[in-house]
Amino acid sequence: MGPRDGLITRVRVIGCVAASLALAATASGQTPSLGSQRAVITQYCVTCHNAGNQANAGNLALDSVDPDNVAAHGDTLERVVRKLRMGLMPPPGRPRPEPAAYNSLLVSLQTALDEAASESPNPGRKDTFHRLNRTEYRNVVRDLLALDVDVAELLPIDNPSFGFDNIAGTLTLNDSLMEQYLAVAHTIATTALGSDASPAFKEFRASYEYSQDERLDGFPMGTRGGLRALHSFPRDGEYSFEVKMMCGSIVTGETACSGAFPDTHLLEVTVDGERLELITLPKKGSPDGEMKEVYKLRGAVKAGQRQVAAWFLKQPSVDEFDGFRKKFDKPMHRSNAVSADWMAVFQPSVSSITVGGPFNAGGPGDTPSRQRLLVCRPTGPGDEVRCARRILSTLARRAYRRPVTSAEVDGLMTFFTSARARGFEEGIALAMRRVLTSPHFLFRIEADPSTVGPTGNYRISELELASRLSFFLWRSAPDDELLDRAVNGQLRTPAVLDQQVRRMLADDRARDMLEDFAGQWLQLRKVDVARPDAQMFPNFDHSLRQYLRRETELFVDSIRHEHRSVVDLLTADYSFLNERLAKHYGIAGVKGSHFRKVTFAANNPRRGLLGHGSILTVTSSPIRTRPVVRGKWILENLLGTPPPAPPANVPPFQETGTATALTMRDRMAAHRANAVCASCHAMIDPLGFALENFNPVGQYRTVDENFIPIDATGVLPNGAKFDGFGTFRSALVTNPDLFVSTLSEKLLIYALGRGLEYYDMPAVRAIVQDAAASNYRLSSVILGIVRSVPFQMRRAASAVPAGTSAAR
Amino acid sequence: MIITRMALPRRTFLRGAGVALGLPLLDAMVPALSAMSKTAAAPTPRMLWTYAPNGILLEDWYPGGKQGVAGEGAAFELSTSLGPLAAFKDQVLAVQGLASPSAESRGNSRAPHTKAHTAYLSGARAKYTEGADIALGQTVDQYAAEVLGQDTPLRSLEIALEANYMTGNCDNGYACVYQSAMSWRTATMPLPGETNPRVVFERLFGDGSVGQERLERLRNNKSILDAMKADMSGLQKRLGASDRAKIAEYVDSIREVERRIQRAEARGGDSPIPMDRPSSIPDSFDEHSKLMWDLVFLGWQADITRVTTYQISREQSDHSYPNVGVTDGHHAVSHHGHNPERMAMHTRINTYHMSLLGYFADKLKNTPDGDGTLLDHSLLVHGSGMGDADAHDPHNLAITMVGGLCGKLRGNRSLVYPVGDNIPFMNLNLDLLSMAGVHVDAIGDSTGFLAGV
Predict the structure, then answer these.
(1) In chain A, which among 571-600 make CB contacts under 8 A with chain B?
(2) Are residues B384 and B325 located together in one domain of the fold?
(3) Three-class SS string for chain B?
(4) ipTM of the complex
(5) Looking at residues A178-197, what average pLDDT do you find?
(6) CB contact under 8 A, B199 and A156
(7) How far is the alpha carbon of A434 from chain B, nearest alpha carbon, in Å?
(8) Is the pTM of this model over 0.95?
(9) Same-domain check for residues B198 and B215
């Protein structure tokens, strides 16, 4: 019981710190108890929020809440906190306490809730079975076997809940998925060992919308366009490469390569950057013959995963000649543009690469996967069993993320033995398939200790903690060091825990984690499917889409590796641009396709996330901005105040049918004309209007599509006025707690793999208050999460099986 | 065994069944085989339900005029959005006026799109949650699969087209799976649609291995599944009562995979592999959709599966369709506010979706099956969980059916039911199931069989 008491004490300390920090903001120096605020609550809240009027007041009654017993009303009071911290209640037009009294009530309320939580914490209960999601599966296999598998081709998409695709409760397993796991396990075992020497062909295709007129991000200097793919070469041997060219336009139907171009082009085919062949693509009427659609070549390649690429060597003369094409950044050959007039093609591009082989296969080589997996080689037939046991127990420990019993290894050896007749490695392969389909691999399983009674709180085991840590910070399994710390019982030592977190945060896998997190929190994943209208935004293409997303990913990661405050996410004076993106934004002086840090002046609208084209695009329709979507996006993702669902039976908008051009504000005026709509849209719409200077693809504008000047002024829900985007951006972080708290909530959901409940909010406040001391540095927010009650502990199941609730 | 081989020739792609002969397991499979041969002699029904989101513009869908008229033969006129089905008019039945009562708001206004989608094939109301307690009801296709799918390697196939879309808050506190899964095996087990053609290919035809290699792989998978079951029973002892239900569900899934392996083995391991394995999701929606239809077709033709759901796109999808001149998002267009231009765009989307159904129906029509064509023995049900999407209205649904259902369903007509009667769409489904030989008395909010079908 000792250690558990220790943790609870710590919680209490955090609670007090939270209170005192919040107190600093009040004049009194002493937090009044919530009980002493009874009169304020009665006067300003209960007038509407009482049992008799509940139905008209957000289904919230406060007359039955005893301020001296907040523990009994945590759910209700956390809803109150959410409204008060945003300044949403009492509603406009109703009497409201003076700011100091208002703040004092909020502080008393939060302090009372935090104290109640420290008296009697509820760490919540993540579901017992937590299936690896697709991203985690890929990462785990990468770390387990030094093998990159393209999971998008092998496993289905995971359905998100609470905004994230790693929620235990909804990551379930059905027979179809189980069948896929069986198939993938076979693929992985075969690929890792290089056991399949029969020739196979794999085609890699370039996206339809890919611009190949410039050097692509990550391609070598002096090249243009091309296609690159990671391919697993199972054996040392000879392989065939078929590079298919795209010369014309699908739209016009003129796709022949013969005689298509007035210049000669040079196509270089490489494996891991080493030239396999340099092919000359003859110009029209060349005495060497005409250009072909497909070029075939062969080459010897060593086994392993290697980058296969075909690109063009850049020829400046062609670019300069091509004055017309320069008007457009979008590829001309096969876009989804509606007009065929644009379909002028001046240079060839790569359409696909098909790798075939091995032919004349040699051995499986000494690939990183084999090195990682085959930790020994049998010295002779008599040594096979010993060596197989060693290989399989090492694999199983890493795969199951815990020490394995000798009975478990015996079970794996049965599989080894049954396939041994076909060779030692065949035996290993079959046992591997068994490991990769075990529930101990596919699921993270957290079990209630037998010593804890129903609904009792307990600290999760160190092994469970190690997995929680690594799946949070790396979206992957613990590495050997982390696992060892847990096995040795050192992980809960505060210094060790901090050191491990910092070590993990410094790793590239933490960068990938942030990319995954931001892809969901900020909805960057939607950039991939954004389809701005091709006529209105002719330059929007796949490359730009990637660059928009890349900018935000680099920016978010800079907060990590530059050890910055998370508040910088909204206000930083820099971002990451390349030439194409800078051009899209109208920023001069950025040359080349590589991303670099660009610093902005104080009045530059590109400061902070809200100036990122990625976010502005995903919150727009293909043809217009959507202030309601943008406003809602800000409320949900930055300010932690999701607006309620629209009421039933809202009459649909009637278009007025007038010929005069309406501004976005005019169109949205109907929201405010109807009192039912206005109650929420008065809060939502102004936030969206603040971003009206950005068009549907995130370009800055001062007039709308009808050349009417943009009016981006407005008032925040708490009454703060802004005269444009710049002041709006600053106003969002006047009190950074709101934003930091929202980010912490999202990170905590992501870290735990479950939705948050009212009883998690004291932990969130503690995380924010602790991070305040270090200027809200990202690492301190993350350390706060790792140390928090819901991350360290779990509540045992109740005696009666019951579903979890999703109170919100 | 000889009977089996004789029953198979209509599956054009089958490559010899010789390997099967030596299989020791085969004797145990004889009952399944004879069931199969029976079905080959008397054509078996195939059933498909598609889903189009965001409602259907009724004015341009009503057969025979603005308010819709019941009619038959010459009196049954194809409207604009039914136009793509002209080649199959004899086998088209349009039903208007039915409702999806479980999608009504009833004082809870949240997430009308999610409610419309979930109620459509379940007749049930989705539980408001994002957690492990998601619940709906067994969907009509899964009732069909219980009977029609019992002898086929794949009990049912679930297809969707929109991948990589869902992120953020899907629909006001409802789990995203409610929008991605059209089919639910049980009230708690959603079957999300598969969006990747390659994965669909592998579900239908395996990983490309054939003959002895494939049988070997199947045998190994069986012993792996045995080990999984052993793991599960180990966990059952270790974990508490509250987790047992989950374990039972997983064990059921393992058993289902085992059954599927047995059926595959019964077919001799030599499964038909009629096309190259698709390499990835095509960029173009049209190509993606058609590739999926091709796969469904091949699965039906080879009798690998007989029951399919196909979600053309997801509720609230803002996919644009420049290929038919619609550059704004689908959801945005569906809230047309009676603007004629936007209504016309909505119809173009509806018509385009109908043309995809026509693409599939055309393949079926050109495929001989027993005494007729595959289309004669199939039923395709196309619709949306909303009628007028501009008002999020789950009444007056536009239901379009194509196919003869083995002579049980008469086409070339339209039926009109009074909207005020609020007759559940699920009633029609009971009739359709019954015609296919699947006898179910009630599903979700059904109130009985539908008169007049």
Answers:
(1) none
(2) yes
(3) CHHHHHHCCCCCCCCCCHHHHHCHHHHHHHHHHHHHHHHHHCCCCEEEEEECCCCCCHHHCCCCCCCCCCEEHHHCCCCCCCHHHHHHHHHEEEEEEEECHHHCCCCCCCCHHHHHHHHHHHCCCCCCCCCCCCCCCCCHHHHHHHHHCCCCCCCCEEEECCCCCCCECCECCECCHHHHCCEEEECCEEECCECCHHHHHHHHHCCCCCHHHHHHHHHHHHHHHHHHHHHHHHHHHHCCHHHHHHHHHHHHHHHHHHHHHHHHHHCCCCCCCCCCCCCCCCCCHHHHHHHHHHHHHHHHHCCCCCEEEEECCCCCCCCCEHHHCECCCHHHHHCCCCCHHHHHHHHHHHHHHHHHHHHHHHHHHCCEECCEECHHHEEEEEECCCCCHHHCCCCCEEEEEECCCCCCCCCCEEEECCHHHCCEHHHHHHHHHHHCCCCCCCCCCCCCCCCCC
(4) 0.86
(5) 94
(6) yes
(7) 6
(8) no
(9) no
